[in-house]
Design a protein that fits this description.
183 residues; alpha/beta; Rossmann fold; 2 domains; six-stranded mixed sheet; 34% helix; 27% strand
């Protein structure tokens, strides 16, 4: 297949606007993505979404990202790393750090050659930013390339009721699309 074949190439705005139908090839993933009826679907063996979430906030974000990618999100305590080349890793924020299960998961795996998109939730943006920095540092020490990150507010006790909400989850889906394009 010629990568200049107009039926197989698309521009960023087409994916962002979700206005095209047909078959698209994202070079580097070595797979075909079918975009029809404003949905992206494919067998995404090279992509995984793994999450650690105690309160369910980060799980909602993981499920939104996975839905956008046409796969199911897994839990870091139960899902093996597998052969995925692109990983979306998410954790809630606990004292400015990722959850203990996420920390153990990162410590126990080799991320050499893998591209990672990090996401998280927290009651405060500063907490999420700190957690993402800690997680990114740990992943890079294990050989990962960081593609980018996303965070949003999450409900905690009486704070941030309604979060993550529809806008947060829509932004998480947009993040997933952007990470595939820039990878």
């Amino acid at each position: 297949m010629n990568k200049d074949d107009p039926e197989k190439i698309f521009e960023l705005q087409h994916l962002e606007n979700r206005t095209i139908s047909g078959t698209v090839l994202l070079w580097g993933l070595h797979r075909t993505i079918h975009i029809a009826d404003n949905q992206i679907s494919e067998i995404m063996a090279d992509i995984a979404v793994l999450v650690f979430s105690r309160g369910g906030n980060t799980r909602k974000v993981a499920d939104a990202i996975a839905e956008e990618l046409g796969i199911k999100a897994g839990d870091v305590t139960a899902s093996p790393l597998g052969d995925a080349k692109i990983l979306f890793l998410g954790s809630g924020t606990y004292g400015g750090k990722p959850g203990e299960a996420m920390t153990k998961f990162v410590e126990s795996a080799d991320f050499t050659g893998r591209k990672i998109a990090i996401f998280g939730t927290s009651s405060s943006p500063a907490g999420s930013e700190k957690m993402i920095a800690v997680l990114a540092d740990a992943l890079m020490k294990k050989g990962a390339t960081i593609l980018g990150n996303f965070h949003c507010r999450g409900k905690f006790l009486l704070m941030n009721r309604g979060h993550p909400g529809k806008e947060d989850l829509d932004n998480a889906k947009k993040f997933a699309r952007e990470m595939l394009i820039i990878h």
